[in-house]
Q: What sequence folds into this?
């Protein structure tokens, strides 16, 4: 076998959880592959550590680019906002903050939405102005929490275009969309999208 092209992808790549699930699968896959090769050498090297297969790098880059597009080369604060009861337990958000804090000129923290404030006419956290927010919950949750806590600073950040929220696309973020994209009405999608979408039935 001279060349083998393949990939593994976690469907839920719209959130840090999906990235961590994918990474865990890659770690397991790498361990199994190494074990198989010790038992019977296969002669194929798999690079399961390639950045392409570690989506958090690309997402961090996107968040940093969003900051740079607004604030240039100035230092920035990227907030990771999640529901209060998840702050200590959701490892993927903790990992995202840790990764963001390794970027020169960028600082980050994990917080509940009600911890945001307005300071010196800017959306801020503990007095530090926020350039970009990753909000790890959907719009329905945002509105419910707004009714409960009065999340005016977060709402303002949304209106200023500072909020990134992949989970806002939940109607398309379900596996049943495979059938829509590969179904009889697929002429409404780009041909490349149809070609790359698995047939699931």
A:
């Amino acid at each position: 076998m001279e060349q083998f092209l393949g990939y593994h992808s976690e469907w839920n790549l719209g959130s840090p959880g999906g990235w961590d699930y994918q990474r865990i699968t890659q770690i397991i896959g790498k361990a199994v592959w190494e074990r198989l090769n010790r038992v019977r050498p296969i002669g194929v090297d798999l690079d399961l550590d390639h950045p392409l297969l570690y989506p958090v790098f690309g997402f961090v880059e996107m968040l940093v680019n969003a900051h740079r597009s607004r604030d240039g080369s100035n230092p920035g604060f990227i907030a990771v906002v999640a529901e209060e009861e998840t702050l200590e337990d959701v490892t993927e958000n903790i990992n995202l903050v840790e990764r963001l804090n390794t970027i020169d000129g960028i600082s980050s923290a994990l917080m509940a939405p009600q911890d945001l404030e307005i300071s010196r006419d800017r959306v801020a956290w503990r007095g530090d102005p926020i350039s970009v927010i990753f909000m790890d919950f959907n719009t329905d949750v945002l509105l419910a929490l707004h009714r409960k806590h009065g999340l005016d600073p977060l709402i303002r950040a949304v209106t200023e275009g500072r909020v990134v929220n992949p989970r806002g696309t939940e109607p398309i973020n379900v596996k049943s969309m495979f059938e829509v994209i590969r179904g009889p009405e697929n002429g409404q999608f780009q041909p490349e999208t149809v070609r790359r979408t698995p047939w699931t039935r």
In short: Residues 72-170 form one domain. The chain has a mean pLDDT of 83. The beta strands are 76-81, 106-111, 117-119, 122-125, 128-129, 132-135, 163-164. The CA atoms of residues 84 and 129 lie 20 Å apart.
